[in-house]
Write a structure and sequence with these properties.
Blueprint (H helix, E strand, L loop, with lengths): L2 H17 L2 H5 L1 H9 L7 E5 L5 H7 L4 E6 L2 H14 L4 E5 L12 E7 L8 H11 E12 L5 H14 L9 H10 L2 E14 H8 L3 H12 L3 H7 L8 E13 L2
Parallel strand pairs: 1-2, 1-4, 2-3, 4-5
Antiparallel strand pairs: 5-7, 6-7
Helix pairs in contact: 1-5, 6-8, 7-10
């Protein structure tokens, strides 16, 4: 099974739970992403890896038109349901790949991606495609869970993410994102960092994690060194919650 098939399998089963997930619907990084898009009401926006549409609908409140693109039909069905419930007439949802979006050059003013890029097999390709799709002075805004620059903390985070979700590819470092943005012709900047507090039980339940995987993750938390405990804000002896770092990064298209 390749990465994209794994994504469809995992999120087809979890779609309804993501539609009602509070951390996806209302976390502070969502407000930051919308603000960083600098929308005036005239823009055409593409939301890559839109999932159940939380970011798409938030952007639609300030844009002329927003297209949500996702690989998984079940996630798109939930997004369409939410759009109908909210009366959002300026959005549409389409099935497609963030690494090969099926749109002409220079057809959008803003491209976004929220809490989905850690599933991209080739994130640098998605950044290059965003540059192709953007008009002059267009903006790419990415919000995603990121790895610390410290190698041990990076390893810990990606190990537990992969144990919980087999479709996880990698949480990248902010420095990696900025390198890809520059290479694609963007001027990058860090908008902000936001710690997302996660409850273990709901975090496992949302993805439908197997009990054996949850047990392995708890074992890793129990044995984590002090610097890892501090970085992700958990108590190893009785870990009920932890925090995952979210970064919002904006690139302005140069030229």
């Amino acid at each position: 099974m390749d990465v994209k098939e794994s994504i469809r399998g995992q999120f087809s089963a979890a779609a309804a739970r993501y539609a009602t997930s509070a951390v996806h619907a209302r976390h502070g990084d969502l407000d930051a992403l919308v603000a960083a898009a600098e929308l005036s009401g005239r823009e055409r926006v593409l939301d890559l890896g839109c999932g159940t549409g939380h970011s798409t609908l938030a952007l639609a409140a300030r844009a002329a038109e927003v297209v949500g693109l996702d690989l998984t039909d079940a996630m798109l069905a939930q997004a369409q349901r939410l759009a109908r419930e909210r009366g959002a007439a300026n959005v549409r949802f389409e099935r497609g790949d963030a690494e090969a979006p099926p749109y002409p050059d220079a057809s959008f003013d803003v491209v976004t991606s929220r809490v989905s890029a850690h599933h991209y097999a080739h994130p640098e390709r998605a950044v290059q495609e965003a540059a192709r799709l953007l008009r002059p002075d267009g903006r790419l805004v990415i919000s995603d869970s990121v790895s610390p620059e410290d190698p041990a903390q990076d390893t810990f985070l990606n190990a537990i993410e992969l144990l919980r979700d087999p479709s996880h590819v990698r949480n990248h470092r902010v420095s990696e994102w900025c390198t890809w943005l520059r290479a694609a012709g963007f001027s990058p900047g860090l908008v902000g960092r936001y710690d997302m507090l996660l409850d273990f039980d709901s975090w496992f339940a949302r993805m439908g994690s197997q009990p054996a995987s949850a047990e392995r993750i708890r074992w890793l938390f129990a044995g984590a060194p002090a610097e890892v405990q501090q970085a992700f804000a958990f108590e190893p002896t009785d870990a009920k919650t932890w925090t995952i770092p979210i970064a919002v990064i904006r690139g302005r298209r140069v030229g």
